Amino acid sequence: MGMGCLPFRAMRRRCKVRAPVGRFLKEKRARLYIIRRCVTILICWRHEEEDK
Predict the structure, then answer these.
(1) How many CB atoms lie within 10 A of CB 33?
(2) What is the DSSP string of the chain?
(3) How high does pLDDT run on average in the chain?
(4) Among 10, 17, 37, 41, which is disulfide-ready with 6 (CB 3.0 to 4.6 Å)?
């Protein structure tokens, strides 16, 4: 069943439910991206220190 089959009210209700979940997932992805970047920077920095 595609979105085109749903009545307008049902589509609006479904979008309202998905909005908080989407916001939550977006925030989690952003946090994971930042953590990944920090770990990468620390690893690279550590390797430079060992090379000296």
Answers:
(1) 10
(2) --GGGS-HHHHHHHHHHHHHHHHHHHHHHHHHHHHHHHHHHHHHHHHHHHH-
(3) 77
(4) 10
Q: What's the count of helices (H) and strands (E) in the chain, helices before strands?
A: 1, 0
Residue 1 pLDDT class (50, 70, 90 cuts): very low
Take residue 21 and report the two structure tokens written for it: 């979940």
Provide the token pair at 19: 């909005």
- Token digits of residue 29: 């992805």
> 14-35, pLDDT tens digit by residue?
556 667 889 999 999 999 999 9
The residue segments making up the domain with residue 18 are 3-51
